Amino acid sequence: MSLAQHLVELRRRAIIGAIALVIGMIIAALISNQIIDLLTEPIRIVSNSRASDFAALNFNTVTAGFDFHVRIAFAIGIILSAPVWLWQIWAFIMPGLTRKEVRYTVGFLSAAIPLFFAGCALGLCVMPHVIEVMATFVPEQGALFYQYDVYYDFVLKLLLVIGVAFVLPVFLVALNFAGIISGIAILKGWRVAVLAATIFAAIATPAADVLSMLMLGGILIVLYIAAAAVSMLFDRRRSKREESFLSADSSS
Hints:
Elements: H1 3-30, H2 32-50, E1 55-58, H3 64-80, H4 82-93, H5 99-135, E2 144-147, H6 148-177, H7 183-188, H8 190-204, H9 210-251
């Protein structure tokens, strides 16, 4: 294909992805109230723990409520339309890949996508505990008003950070595939991995919520060890292929 044909193909697939996103946002807008209820449930728990007016979600402009619904619809719309726009990206780049590269890419995506959403799901479970524990530091004479956009950014960033952290072991395996790092080297770095996982879990969760910190850190360490094990398995297969190739070459 010429450059102009590539651009036409890119535009066509971008339009399809945009249409899917709009449809996903429309569907998300219909259930946005239920999603907002789910995300703001920790605020109601915090408010009921002291008094009815202790904590609330604050909207300080005329259009703030509408903006909050649009943000929710956009985020959920991206998730709902993910199968369509991910396929459009894949269909655009797949013709330029070899069969081996296609197989590896499918394998990595098959592992990375479920891990990312599993991390987001865990973040959604951890998020209420984070908010409830942080609210305990507010003095008795104080009131807690969450600015809607700050609250939304906090929840979104927490989910994304934990989701990306779950995908990092897949990148380690990818580096092993590329021959940049060996499985033994990954395993030898377990002390650094444990320290990094503990620090990350401590930052992502409040210091007072030890259970959430241990759960998040433990899962990250298990994923790291799994990445090391998979990489060592690939290294063993690679060494066996090299040995068989060398023996065949010497016999000939």
